[in-house]
From TrEMBL:
KW Disulfide bond (keyword) present: no
Protein known as: Glycosyltransferase
Gene3D superfamilies recorded: Glycogen Phosphorylase B
GO molecular function: UDP-glucosyltransferase activity
Keyword vocabulary terms for this entry: Glycosyltransferase, Transferase
Record carries keyword Transferase: yes
Organism name: Escallonia herrerae
EC number: 2.4.1.-
Family the UniProt entry places it in: Belongs to the UDP-glycosyltransferase family.
Amino acid sequence: MAPVPSLPSPHIVLFPFMSKGHTIPVLHLSRLLLHRGATVTVFTTPANRPFISNYLSDTDISIIDLPYPENVDGIPPGIESTDKLPSMSLFVPFASATELMQPHFEEALKTLPRVAFMITDGFLGWTLDSATKFNIPRLVYYGMNNFAMAVSRDVSESRLLQKTESDTESFAVPHFPWIKLTRNDFSPPFTDREPSSPHFEWVMQGAIATTKSHGLVVNSFYELEPLYLDYWNREFQPKAWCVGPLCLSDPVRPPIKPTSKWMEWLDQKLSQGSSVLYVAFGSQAEISEEQFEEIKIGLEKSGVNFLWVVRMKEPDEAFEERVKDRGIVVREWVDQRGILEHKAVKGFLSHCGWNSVIESICAKVPILAWPFMAEQPLNARMVVEEIKVGLRVETCDGTVRGFVKWEGLEKTVRELMEGEMGKVVRKRVDEVGEKAVKAVEEGGSSWGTVNELIDELHAGN
Ligand code: UDP
Ligand code: UDP
């Protein structure tokens, strides 16, 4: 039989939002698509270009940078990434200003070879308008899992957050009544009593653009949350395509900096037969001084070995000296995936940003969940109550957002690293991590979904 003539390789445009948590998975995706025979162009801004080009330096992925607008209210000049913002209260002006990039985006699209489809961030809702003008299907990257998407949608449609009296009153999620939540599990603007703030309006605009888009690309895998993916695809638009874990799907690891002092330190701990708790709260979480002090005491008293990545806090030399035989504090950008995959690392005290959660699952490291903002409390519920790959840090008043005293931290750190419950979740994360690996392998669920996505959009365009 004569071979079926194959279509030329599809050209796919990616436009990640300018924050680390939204950019990193999309860069993994770019490598995955490249590996599947696509040609890829990534859009960004000048200040973010070095990070991206460094990450993609061994590929022929094109990078186009569009100027981020000047003189945006409250945004210091030169800041083009949310992790550089002086405060997250500037998030909405920062993100809405990207709309001014639309003419530049469209100028650039005109110069590109035919685009089969684009995947742009949910925070860049205006890209739908450009996509429509150029007759290019747009898919949305949100950075959320299906559990958080389905549960948030269900709760917001029933207006439960407006109906509950207090932040701590528990209610059942209508279609998933075994899930008990509180207002504390959600963040502004969804918790606003009168949902008409600029933040809410902006979120709604983005959500409408998403609904009108061709699909959602989700950094998760079917076997992790079949119920929630099926629910979403039965009840809501647009279709969710689960193609992750993206951190596993770049077949070629990007170049990693030469061995750092903390990787050497981990090697040393491993050679001594010791295990290490990795402590990191992502690129955005703002932690009060008071809370920071309790973390130090809790880690010191727990007696466990730890590697703690700290952002924007002054070094405490006395503390670092006291714990130096078993704790290391790092103030630089680290290769988190490399750390989690290190054999010495046996636990992750995490803010439960979705990337951190999925990276931890892939590395088969159980989580001690301590959510701070955005959908992190929902991710923590998923980690602890649904997939059962972690424990929750103990707050002093037992609420989701309560202050964590050193005693609660010490106790739960020990439980994760040395206790019986720690053993149970460690075994479980091994099993779930295995499923994650299978999902992205040839023949796995995510592998198949990527093929379907390319076939559907490439052939139809
Ligand atoms: N970055 C950005 N906006 C800024 C400053 C930096 O988007 O205002 C990006 C840029 O891509 C940079 C990355 O953030 O490469 C990391 O910046 P950082 O200064 O933390 O790291 P370094 O410069 O040490 O690589
Ligand atoms: N990350 C990293 N090195 C750091 C800090 C963060 O590689 O020093 C990566 C981490 O592996 C993850 C992303 O940055 O891929 C952070 O995303 P996440 O969703 O966990 O949290 P966010 O920063 O969005 O709160």
